[in-house]
């Protein structure tokens, strides 16, 4: 199991159902995580959906974000516009409100912790080696190419290096949770938390068609969420996370 951190000054993970105003998720959805791993390993665009759909992903929000709307100009770049573009002439455009994530409080950068597993251990080890040496095959970004990101290696765990917790065990979950796996939230203990439930992309089919999205639940500020699950959770011992970090994979 590979664990790494994604950091960057700003992010935009567009909600698939928005049009005129582009809203953002507060975390990279599973499809974005697949794209990041594909960029690390050098998979070409649209070539990895079926392959990486066999992987297991979990993501934790490590820095509370703040949201800001900014109107951006989209310029038409259709084939008939290319002669004008080459002569640096003005083209018709569209102004669109775009919602961005920025680091909140005293933080200087957003940070998301990614947990990635795959049936082929060689693929995970190659991704770990590339991140450890700081040489992903393609540039990384947080949703948009304008939101450049960097990835830092945290650890590579063997199958016996982390602890599975049976379904129904009370856990303080730090990752975004697939709502279908939720049995119970300890409401008195999370009275000060901000729980969000959203529908997020899960996977792409042939031709980049969006497969049915899933409902997810997470704490907006990145605080641990006391819950009981219908699926196993996994506890990882990380020096940067005190005595450990407990996550649930989006796949269950």
State the shape: globular
- Percent helix among the residues? 10-25%
How are the strands ordered across the major sheet? 2-5-1-7-6
Q: How many beta strands in the DSSP annotation?
A: 16
Strand content: 35-45%
Question: What tags apply to this protein structure?
Answer:
three-stranded antiparallel sheet, five-stranded antiparallel sheet, 36% strand, 13% helix, 252 residues, 4 helices, mainly beta
Protein topology:
Elements: E1 2-8, H1 30-41, H2 49-52, E2 56-61, E3 65-75, H3 82-86, E4 93-103, E5 110-117, H4 121-132, E6 140-141, E7 148-156, E8 163-165, E9 171-173, E10 177-178, E11 182-185, E12 195-200, E13 214-219, E14 225-229, E15 233-236, E16 245-247
Antiparallel strand pairs: 1-5, 1-7, 2-5, 3-4, 6-7, 8-15, 9-14, 10-13, 11-14, 12-13, 15-16
Description:
The structure is a single chain. With 252 residues, the protein is mainly beta. 13% of the residues lie in helices and 36% in strands. It is built from four helices and 16 strands. It has a five-stranded antiparallel sheet. The protein has a three-stranded antiparallel sheet with strand order 8-15-16, with no helix packed on it. A hairpin with an 8-residue loop joins strand 15 (233-236) and strand 16 (245-247). The protein starts with a strand and ends in a 5-residue tail after the last strand.
């Amino acid at each position: 199991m590979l664990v790494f951190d994604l950091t960057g000054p700003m992010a935009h993970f567009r909600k698939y159902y928005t049009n005129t105003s582009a809203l953002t998720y507060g975390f990279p959805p599973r499809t974005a995580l697949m794209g990041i791993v594909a960029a690390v390993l050098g998979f070409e665009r649209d070539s990895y959906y079926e392959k990486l759909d066999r992987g297991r992903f979990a993501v934790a929000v490590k820095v509370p974000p703040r949201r800001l709307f900014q109107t951006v100009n989209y310029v038409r770049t259709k084939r008939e516009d290319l002669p004008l573009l080459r002569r640096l002439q003005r083209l018709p455009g569209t102004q669109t409100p775009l919602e961005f994530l920025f680091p909140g409080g005293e933080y200087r950068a957003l940070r998301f912790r990614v947990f990635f597993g795959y049936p082929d251990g060689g693929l995970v080890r190659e991704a770990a080696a590339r991140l450890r040496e700081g040489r992903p095959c393609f540039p990384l970004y947080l949703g948009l190419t304008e939101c450049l990101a960097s990835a830092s290696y945290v650890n590579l765990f063997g199958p016996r290096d982390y602890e599975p917790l049976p379904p129904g065990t009370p856990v303080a979950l730090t990752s975004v949770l697939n709502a279908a796996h939720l049995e119970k939230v300890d409401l008195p203990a999370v009275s000060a938390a901000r729980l969000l439930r959203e529908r997020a992309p899960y996977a792409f089919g042939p031709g980049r068609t969006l497969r049915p999205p899933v409902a997810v639940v997470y704490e907006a500020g990145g605080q641990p969420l006391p819950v009981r699950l219908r699926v196993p959770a996994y506890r990882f011992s990380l020096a940067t996370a005190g005595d450990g970090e407990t996550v649930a994979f989006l796949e269950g």
